Amino acid sequence: MKKEAAYLRVMPIAIMVSCFFVFGQNVKAADTVITQDTVWSKGEVRIIDGSDGLAIMPGAKLTVEAGVIIKLYPNNAITIMGELDIKGSAAEPVIITSLKDDSAGGDTNGDGNATAPALGDWYGIFANSPSAIIKIDYAKISYGGSYDNNQTYLLAINQAAEFSVSHSSIVNNNGYMIIGQVPSVKINYSNINNPNFCLSEDPFGMGIAMTYCGGPMLMNMGANLMDATNNYWGHENGPTILEQISGSPDIKGTAIMGNISYQPFLTMP
User: Fold this and answer.
1) I want to staple 165 with a disulfide (CB 3.0 to 4.6 A). Which of 17, 136, 153, 182 is the partner?
2) Tally of domains in the chain
3) Residue numbers of the domain that contains 73
4) Is residue 28 part of a domain?
């Protein structure tokens, strides 16, 4: 099978902060736009709703302690222009999930069993500021990656000073994970897996006319090396190297593309 040069157009992230609204328990409306150093403490369930979701403004830091649950309405995103510091623990990870996820924080939307969480129930996590800092340790991120029911970015870190994820699970999501110009970028000791996510019909113009399942796909479009060692990619033989696909035997776990160091990798979650 002929394989052509890979390309992907990465669009800048448009960040607009206008009106924000939140509904639910243990939430203050002003907390949706973080304009000063703020701590969300253990036991809190934060419900994010509104036209732009949760925004951390330049110069402000949001610290999220172990056991906090963040539940997002459809089309809502987390946008970081300041600093996000997630400090979960092995026993009490920080959970970022769909409003419909009754397994986290109970039946928040009060509809009993009428709805269930699904891939793409909320938007994604974004940064497009050279001073943004994102540190995520012991978190579980699920059911994101769509806007208006269309698959989009789960993570789009176009610009940031630092981006790190450790001891976390990025599972049951739609969307792509794209890293741009980030001097320091690390994803370690984490599970990156969603066997229900599939791509087909050569979506990136790579001359690959086959179906790939296993995402969400991780792409490093920046010049700096991404340290993505010691992760579980959804397959005992590691990730799928997108640039090296020439046939079905090359398809393994979550696909990766770009300047990414992934070995050694974990063979089980």
Assistant:
1) 136
2) 1
3) 20-193
4) yes
Count Cα atoms within 13 angstroms, Cβ side, for 17.
14
Pick the closest to residue 39 from 93, 95, 109, 87 (CA basis). Answer: 87
CA 168 to chain centre: 11
Q: Tokens 């090359």 correspond to what residue?
A: 250
Q: Residues 8-24: pLDDT tens digits?
A: 222 222 333 332 223 23
Give domain status of residue 180, yes or no.
yes
* Predicted TM-score (pTM) of this structure: 0.83
Tell me if 256 is assigned to some domain.
no
Burial of 68-88, coded b for 16+ CB within 10 Å and e otherwise, reads bbbbbbbbbbbbbbbbbbbbb
Cα(197)–Cα(190) distance, integer angstroms: 18
In a domain, 50, yes or no: yes
Residue 183's SS3 state is coil
Residue 139 token pair? 């978190």
Neighbours of 17 (CB within 10 A): 15
